[in-house]
Specification:
By secondary structure, the protein is mostly helical. Helix content is 77%, strand content 1%. Strands 1-2 form a two-stranded antiparallel ribbon.
């Protein structure tokens, strides 16, 4: 959980909402130009995710995650020294994406899935609470540093988290289970991990259903998160109140992780995921315009966060249940690609609409349609395959 919290998944996405306005003011770059930076970071990381997942399958999670935490911290700190040059700004974001992907749930969730089966949904939910923890802490640190200093020092302060918190804990306390410690549903009697190969997975329809669902939800949500502070300020709320909305989003993610994770362990996961992923349609409707009262804005933020928590749980949980653990790192990496790429492109899309129209109303309408498609398509997944020590991959 701490590794996820201090890694490259939540920290950039919870930092940019606080500093995007000051960067726009200080550098003169448009909101779209600034958002392209995080699109580059997310796209490069997502493209590398399958390779990083394959490396974790081969050498284990720990060395991959530790090296990435160190690289991410150093690269993120470089943003404090970026010159007044967009290409340099984009170059640092590219470096963050390349070196940071191993510190995301692509690696950490592999180990959790190897340790747990019966309560896997809850275990993954607790793991992914790291993004909620970052959502609570990172905006507050960023806002405090910004008020005391400037946006450059925000990056420097937050770069300390992966290096001085996540890395030592991973070194001393984290490990993969030994073969004899794995649940029977995870490995065969010979010790071989159960499940489908990457080739078998890519030729099946379930993978592409998940891929399309993740793509739609990520494209709808990513930009809403990055531009949340700006959207809230358009409704007349102060910057400190807008930062508090980010904490409410994090609270929604926190509760979504635990509640949805528990329900995944007890019911067919798509039946739980669908209604949860439709909640942001209400949130987007509430965020349209410029005169929504503060309590309603907080409700919208919570609904968006709750669904975001469910989506991350869904990727890790459904990957392991439908495809097994034989090639989990590779498969999860391929499913992380639409999440990383379209979350990042979403920020650019929201920024472009803001620059062209002066508000976010049009893109919020698009997001409502994307949330609907991304949620409903999951009902086509069907029953889970059953992985056993004797018959691997037999659907029952």
């Amino acid at each position: 959980m701490t590794g996820v919290a201090t890694g490259a998944s939540p920290i950039p996405f919870n930092t940019l909402p606080i500093v995007i306005g000051p960067i726009n003011y200080a550098m003169g770059w448009s909101f779209q130009e600034i958002s392209i930076g995080i699109a580059i970071y997310g796209t490069l990381g997502a493209i590398l995710a399958p390779a990083v997942g394959a490396l974790a399958d081969r050498v284990g999670t720990k060395p991959v995650a530790m090296a990435s935490l160190l690289g991410f911290g150093l690269a993120f700190g470089l943003m404090a020294f970026v010159p007044d040059n967009l290409m340099a700004f984009y170059g640092i974001w590219a470096l963050i994406g390349i070196v940071g992907i191993g510190s995301t749930p692509v690696s950490w969730s592999r180990t959790i899935n190897l340790w747990f089966y019966e309560n896997r949904g809850l275990a993954l939910g607790i793991l992914l609470l790291g993004t909620s923890l970052a959502g609570f802490v990172v905006p507050q640190i960023a806002n405090a540093v910004l008020e005391a200093s400037n946006w450059r020092n925000v990056f420097l302060a937050l770069a300390a988290l992966p290096i001085f918190v996540g890395l030592p804990l991973a070194y001393f306390l984290f490990r993969d289970p030994l073969p004899e410690e794995r649940p029977l549903q995870v490995a065969s009697s010979s010790g071989e991990l159960s499940g489908k190969t990457l080739r078998e997975t890519l030729t099946g329809y379930r993978f592409w259903i998940l891929f399309i669902s993740i793509m739609c939800i990520a494209l709808a949500y990513g930009g809403a998160h990055i531009h949340m502070v700006q959207m809230v300020q358009m409704h007349g709320l102060a910057p400190t109140t807008a930062a508090s909305v980010m904490s409410v989003v994090a609270l929604g993610i926190f509760s979504g992780r635990i509640i949805v994770g528990l329900l995944f362990d007890r019911f067919w996961a798509p039946a739980i995921a669908v209604p949860v992923l439709l909640l942001p349609i209400v949130a987007c409707y509430l965020l349209i315009g410029t005169s929504t009262p503060a309590p309603v804005i907080f409700v919208a933020g919570y609904l968006l966060g709750f669904a975001a928590g469910a989506e991350s749980d869904m990727i890790a949980y459904l990957s392991s249940r439908y495809f097994g653990m034989k090639s989990y790192g590779r498969i999860y990496g391929f499913l992380y690609m639409p999440f990383g790429i379209f979350s990042s492109l979403s920020a650019t899309m929201y920024g472009a609409v803001r620059d062209q129209t002066g508000n976010y109303d049009l893109v919020l309408v698009w997001a409502m349609a994307l949330f609907f498609v991304g949620g409903m398509i999951l009902l086509l997944l069907g029953r889970y395959p059953v992985w056993t020590p004797k018959t691997e991959g037999a659907a029952q």
